[in-house]
Every structure is written in structure tokens, then in C-alpha cells.
Specification:
33% of the residues lie in helices and 17% in strands. The chain is of the alpha/beta class and 726 residues long. It folds into four domains: 2-168, TIM Barrel (Alpha-Beta Barrel); 188-272 and 604-662, Fumarate Reductase Iron-sulfur Protein, Chain B, domain 2, CATH 1.10.1060; 285-371 and 553-592, FAD/NAD(P)-binding domain (3-Layer(bba) Sandwich); 386-531, 3-Layer(bba) Sandwich (FAD/NAD(P)-binding domain). A five-stranded parallel sheet has the order 11-10-9-12-23. A five-stranded parallel sheet has the order 14-21-15-16-17. Strands 1-2-5-6 form a four-stranded parallel sheet, with helices on one face. Helix 4 (110-118) links the parallel strand 5 and strand 6. The radius of gyration is 34 Å and the shape is elongated. Bound molecules: iron/sulfur cluster (2 copies). The site of one iron/sulfur cluster has 13 residues, from helix 26.
């Protein structure tokens, strides 16, 4: 090389740059010889000639379509960076500070460029990254590089050059302190878990399904809370709305995977895994008023914590709205009975047909031995607007309508066949009412909603299915008068546009003057809101909207020892919100009664979806399986469930699309890689490390996809000092 450099220099006037391949070995010595011979600069090239992937079906043949035989090929990319850094460092050591070096090999980010300069490079070569990402990453690269220089006070890249070179120390000279690995963010969760009010460990059970471990997935689901099979059917799945995979192709079918697991458990008669009560019975009594999702979730946790729990319910059947209002084609009574039986197994007692404010009061419950009370009575009173004509025959409230329709005998008496029905509202209750009206053979069914589809609280899926079944939806319209003579004959509506955002964050509908019209209907179902029945709660302080006032952190009401949650606190909401309220109240009651068995959910931090997509690389698009359903024309004929369950093969394939975004169950790379078995997964699906077992090797830190592990020093007294044998 030196001879060539000398010859070129002797015969030309152009600068000579010698780019060296590490393949020949001794790259630093060759660089030194080139500089000594007069080269103006030297550079590295980290590429390695290596054996590319082997064709396992035909080992002698190439994997590359246009190549017949196998050969040695050039490999490059970010994995080479540590080797390239070392090459540059060794050259700098040999050639001294004056020579110009170009550092190449695996540079993709501005941080890589800084590292390369610190190891001795004057200039940076970027090659493979442009082939993989195009040039679109360059603006961010340059911005980051400049910001770093500004932050550190560097005026020129030259000033950071070589900073690492003199600091690299032979192992015998190292000072090493004792320590162990530790999580940086103990609750760094996937978007699906972050979005779930009940923090159900979706990522964890999806991973188990992907591995074909269905029973383990079942245990993980059941470890969180009861009512999971109900959520598997009717949850509005905020987890799917937030799923990272939705940015790539389609969100994972989280709810359907859960439903598959729970239905498999029933079919295979796996005994439900209920977390055991770890305490002796405390002897303290808790009264729970209302057996809807909030009441049941609270009863479940308190029974596990060793309290004597009695649930008081005004209806004959437990379940609240689940058994009284949600139509059977979405949720069967058997589903609810199954869950309630699990709760009964924990010793929870049910007293049916007794109502707060009529048959007993909060004071009488306390007098009769209740040490704490949880009020979860729901919001059963449908609201009608203050417009004329709502007293005419043919005006129905959604709750009364759905309650009647839920009962097969009562349903026979509902005379809706051939009627034109208008449902007013845009929530789940409105959509359920419209779909029930279709099944009761109404001639035409309209949903009239004052905002647009984007603001509709009902889920996209339910709205679509309602439309498939023939429901017609009119947006941006609101009622001004019910018209009729003794009976409803029509409804006068006015058109709206969306104005500024209101308190709920949704844009407020505003009337468009002179746009009135009449829709001829003979039945109107009002689904515009629900209230708490006032006589039930006159012992408690209420909000201006008439709901029970609570401390949002603890669910404590204005009365000592009385807690409240679910729809009677937040107004009509989702099942999963009610379950979360029930669980939070159970912790507060446990604390109030001096216990410490239950814990509030720690605050969650969500991973960055862009980072997850970036690290997932060039992922091919893959779509969800098509969930088989009965065609709308058949669904309209009865109240039976119509969605099929995913097959095992479909569920496994779908689960394999999950990107394992967050930290904990479902990732577990740290646990799987640790040769000291220091990492484990706790009952909340979180990874935890045993510092006694950790030997601080650092393997997990390098493999953690979320960069969520750090090393902590446990003493300032070194365990290894310079000069001692390493
Ligand atoms: S890709 Fe998987 S872990 Fe990530 S949000 Fe979706 S379901 Fe959750
Ligand atoms: S490897 Fe996975 S489970 Fe372990 S700390 Fe990192 S993100 Fe969490």
C-alpha cells in the first residue's frame, strides 16, 4: 500500500485518500504506513465478507433468486458499528492527531456519528443507511447532531474528536463498582394496556396465545379481575383503538383473542383460576349496593381480601344493566351467570329485590353492621328533553324499552311491528335500542344524532352493524318538538353544524337557522342521557348534574365509610370503566378498614409507538382475519348472538402480529436472556429483578428493546482496582 501511495503521489498532484478494508487484518498498521508514505487521509470500511443466509431446503443453492450457487457476500449495516469504532480508534492511536481519518461502518443516527468522531474520525461515511431508509432520515440526523453540539458547547466537530481515544483503558486498569441491573420505568406499558382503564395485561396474554399456550393466557386474563368473558364480548376495546399495529396495517383483534381464550376455557372445562384470598377472614362486613359491573368487581376483590361481602340488588336477577338492558344478541344471561357464580365461590352473598332508599338506607346498613359501603346503583332514569309532545303516547325511554325487550315474555307484548321508529341519541344505548327495534320488526328505524359519526360515543363496529341491519342514521340533527294528537305522529327536527369544543372535548353542535323539517314516525325512543334515581341517594352529596360526588382518586363520598363508582358517579359509561371504579373502590375500602391486601394500580407510562415501529424494521403488512358473522338479514330475525369465535389457528396467527410493544409479560427478553435467572414476571405481569442474583453482566441492558434497564451502583467501594488481576 505504501508503495502505491508513493507512486501515485510522485506522479499526480491530486490528494490521495486510502480507504482500507479490515479484511486484510492489521488495519491500523496499514493506515500508519499509508500516512507515512504521503497519503492525505485514511478511512475505514467496516463491511465484512461473510456467508449469507443458507437455503435450508437446498443447502448448496443460493437464497438469492438470480444466483445459482452459494458464495461469500458483502455484509454491512448497524451491527458492524462497534467493530468500525474500534478500527477508527486503533488507527488514531497509531497515526497521531494530525492525520485525517474517515469513519465508516453502521452509522445511521446522529449519535452514531458523534461516537465515531469521539473514537477519532474527522469525517463520517454513511452508506447502508441510505440504502435502507433513503435520504429521509438526514434532516433529523443533522438537526440532532447540531443540537448536541450546541448543548455541549462544541463550536466545531473537531473539538469532540478523539475524546474517547485517550480514555479507553485496558481491563487490568479498570475501577469496577458493585451494582445490579434495575428497571428505569417499572410501569412502561404497551399502548393497549395504557388505554385499558382496568390495565388488563393484553400484551402478555396475546404472547401466550401466539406461543399456543392458551391455558397460560387464560390464567393471565383471569388474574386481573372478574367479568373478563363479559369484556370479551361487549367491551368497547379502547386497547384496539390505541394498538400500535393499527399504524402499520390493522390493530390486533385483542377483544376477539380474549374471547377465544375464555370460550376455550369453558369448552375444555378448565377450572377458573381465581386469585386466592391470602388473608384470614377479617370479620369486617362490607355492603355493596348494586350488582352491575362496578359492584361485582368490588365484591370480587374485597372477598379475596378476606371481607364478608353482601351485595344488595333491586332486581330479581343480579348483573345490573348487563342482565337487564344489554340485548341478548350482544350478551347472554348465561355469560353473566357464569361470572357471578365465580364470585359466589369466593363467599359473596347476594340479597335480591331490595332497593336503596325504599327497603333500606345507608344509615340502616351501617346500623345493621356494615363497616363500609360501596354504592354502585347505576343510572337507571332515562332523560327526556324539555320540548313539547314528549308526553304523547309512543314516547319511550331507552332504558325502559331495553329492559322490556330483554325479557322474552315482555318482548311478545311490545307492539313495534310495522312501526316507524326514531331513536334519539348517539351512545351504546341508542344503537342497542335501534337494533332491538329492528328485531321487533319495526318497518323503519332511524337514529337521530346531533353531532357527526366521529363524535358518536357508540363504537364504530356497533354502528356499522346497525347500518347493515337496516338502521338509518341522520347526523347533525336535533329534536325541537314531538308532533301528534294523543299519539306520536312525527318529530320536528333542526339541522346543526359543529362549532367550538365543549367541556367534553367534543365540538358543540350549533343550530342552522331555518332548517327545520318533520320526520314522520309513530314511536320515539329517547336515549339522550341517564340519571341516578334521586330518592336512592338523598343521603349523599351530589354533583350539579345529579350524580354522586366522589374523590376521584379514592371513590370516597361525602359520608364516612361510603364509597361509590360506576354510572351513578360518572353517568352512563362503559363496562370497563365501571370495573375499574369497582376495583379502585375495593382498595380504598380495604385501606379504610385497616387492611393492606389490595393495591391501587401504579401510574402507567406508555411506550412511544414510533419507536416500536422503527425497531420492528421493515415489517410486511398483514391483515386481521375476517371474523365470521351471521349476515344482517338473518340477524334481524332473532335475538341470538351472531359473531363466531376465532378458530385456534386464527387466534394464534392473529396474536403473532403483535409487536410486543411494552415492558413486562409478552416481552420478557431480559428474563429469557439472563443466565443468572435474576428476572421474573410478577402477578401484575410486570418484570422484576432480584438484585441478589444479578451479577451486573449487562446482557439485558443491551437486549432490552425499550432501553428500560439501567445499571445501578450499590457501593462507592470498588470491587476491582487498577493494577489488580482482572
Ligand atoms: S401491537 Fe401488541 S403490544 Fe402493541 S399495542 Fe398492539 S396488542 Fe398491544
Ligand atoms: S427486555 Fe422487555 S421485559 Fe425486560 S425490561 Fe426490557 S422491555 Fe421490559
Amino acid at each position: 500500500v505504501a508503495e502505491i501511495v508513493k507512486a501515485v503521489k510522485a506522479n499526480t498532484k491530486i490528494p490521495v485518500f486510502v480507504k482500507l478494508s479490515p479484511e486484510g487484518g492489521k488495519i491500523a498498521e496499514v493506515a500508519e504506513a499509508a500516512i507515512a508514505a504521503g497519503a492525505d487521509a485514511v478511512g475505514t470500511n467496516a463491511n465484512r465478507l461473510a456467508i449469507p443466509p443458507i437455503n435450508l431446503d437446498a443447502p448448496g443453492k443460493s437464497m438469492y433468486y438470480l444466483q445459482e450457487e452459494i458464495s461469500i457476500a458483502c455484509m454491512n449495516g448497524p451491527w458492524l458499528k462497534p467493530l468500525a469504532l474500534r478500527d477508527v480508534y486503533e488507527i488514531r492511536l497509531r497515526v497521531g492527531p494530525k492525520a485525517v481519518i474517515t469513519g465508516t461502518g453502521g452509522v445511521t443516527t446522529w449519535q452514531d456519528a458523534v461516537e465515531m468522531m469521539m473514537c477519532g474520525a474527522d469525517l463520517i461515511g454513511i452508506c447502508t443507511a441510505t440504502l435502507v431508509y433513503g435520504f429521509s432520515f438526514m434532516p433529523e440526523f443533522i438537526r440532532g447532531f447540531k443540537e448536541y453540539m450546541k448543548e455541549k458547547g462544541y463550536k466545531h466537530p473537531q473539538e469532540m474528536r478523539d475524546t474517547v481515544v485517550s480514555a479507553i483503558t485496558p481491563s487490568a486498569e479498570l475501577t469496577i463498582y458493585p451494582g445490579n441491573a434495575e428497571l428505569i420505568q417499572p410501569r412502561l406499558v404497551a399502548p393497549c394496556i395504557y388505554a385499558c382503564p382496568n390495565s388488563v395485561p393484553a400484551q402478555g396474554y396475546i404472547r401466550k396465545v401466539a406461543e399456543g399456550k392458551i391455558e397460560e393466557a387464560y390464567k393471565l386474563i383471569m388474574s386481573r379481575s372478574p367479568l373478563q368473558s363479559i369484556c370479551g364480548k361487549i367491551c368497547n376495546h379502547p386497547c384496539e383503538t390505541e394498538c400500535t399495529r393499527g399504524l402499520k396495517d390493522e390493530p390486533i383483534m385483542i377483544r376477539e383473542i380474549k374471547r377465544f381464550v375464555l370460550e376455550t376455557a369453558k369448552k375444555r372445562r378448565w377450572s377458573p383460576y381465581i386469585l386466592p384470598a391470602v388473608k384470614e377472614r377479617s370479620g369486617k362486613n362490607v355492603a355493596i349496593i348494586g350488582s352491575g359491573p362496578a359492584g361485582l368487581a368490588c365484591a370480587y376483590d374485597l372477598a379475596r381480601a378476606g371481607y364478608r361481602v353482601t351485595v344488595y340488588e333491586k332486581n330479581k336477577t343480579p348483573g345490573g344493566m348487563l342482565t337487564s338492558c344489554i340485548p341478548a344478541f350482544r350478551l347472554s344471561e348465561n355469560d353473566v351467570t357464569y361470572e357471578i357464580n365465580l364470585i359466589k365461590k369466593l363467599g359473596v352473598k347476594f340479597r335480591m329485590g331490595v332497593e336503596l332508599g325504599k327497603d333500606f338506607t345507608l344509615a340502616s346498613l351501617k346500623k345493621n353492621g356494615a363497616d363500609a359501603i360501596f354504592v354502585a346503583i347505576g343510572a337507571w332514569k332515562s332523560v327526556k328533553p324539555a320540548i313539547s309532545g314528549t308526553e304523547l303516547e309512543g314516547n319511550l325511554t331507552a332504558i325502559d324499552f331495553l329492559k322490556q325487550a330483554r325479557n322474552a315474555n315482555m318482548r311478545q307484548k311490545m307492539k313495534l311491528a310495522g312501526k316507524r321508529v326514531a331513536v334519539i341519541g348517539g351512545g351504546f344505548t341508542a344503537v342497542d335500542s335501534a337494533r332491538v327495534a329492528v328485531r321487533l320488526k319495526a318497518k323503519e328505524v332511524f337514529i337521530l344524532y346531533r353531532r357527526t359519526r366521529n363524535e358518536m360515543p357508540a363504537s364504530e363496529e356497533e354502528v356499522l352493524e346497525a347500518e347493515e341491519e337496516g338502521v338509518k342514521i341522520m347526523y347533525l340533527v336535533a329534536p325541537v318538538e314531538v308532533i301528534g294528537n294523543g299519539k306520536v305522529e312525527g318529530i320536528r327536527m333542526v339541522t346543526h353544524v359543529l362549532g367550538q369544543q365543549d367541556k367534553s372535548g367534543r365540538r358543540r353542535p350549533e343550530v342552522v337557522p331555518e332548517t327545520y323539517f318533520i320526520l314522520n314516525v309513530d314511536t320515539i325512543i329517547w336515549a339522550i342521557g341517564q340519571e341516578v334515581t334521586s330518592g336512592n341517594v338523598n343521603e349523599l352529596e351530589l354533583t350539579s348534574e345529579g350524580f354522586i360526588k366522589v374523590d376521584p382518586a379514592t371513590c370516597a363520598t361525602s359520608l364516612d365509610g361510603v364509597f361509590a363508582g360506576g354510572d351513578c358517579v360518572r353517568g352512563p359509561s362503559t363496562v370497563i370503566m365501571a370495573i375499574a371504579d369497582g376495583k379502585r373502590s375495593a382498595v380504598s375500602i380495604d385501606r379504610y378498614l385497616g387492611g393492606n391486601f389490595l393495591q391501587y394500580d401504579p401510574e402507567k407510562i406508555v411506550v412511544n409507538k414510533d419507536d416500536v415501529l422503527l425497531r420492528s424494521g421493515n415489517l410486511p403488512r398483514k391483515w386481521r382475519p375476517l371474523l365470521e358473522k351471521l349476515p344482517a338479514i338473518k340477524r334481524r330475525l332473532n335475538f341470538r348472538e351472531y359473531r363466531k369465535i376465532l378458530s385456534e389457528e386464527e387466534a394464534i396467527q392473529e396474536a403473532r402480529r403483535c409487536l410486543a410493544c411494552g415492558c413486562g409479560a409478552g416481552c420478557e427478553i431480559c428474563k429469557n436472556i439472563c443466565k443468572m435467572f435474576a428476572w421474573s414476571v410478577d402477578e401484575t405481569a410486570q418484570v422484576v429483578i432480584d438484585p441478589q442474583k444479578c451479577v451486573a453482566c449487562g446482557m439485558c441492558i443491551h437486549r432490552c428493546p425499550n432501553k428500560n434497564i439501567k445499571m445501578v451502583r450499590t457501593s462507592d467501594v470498588p470491587i476491582h482496582r487498577p493494577g489488580t488481576p482482572s
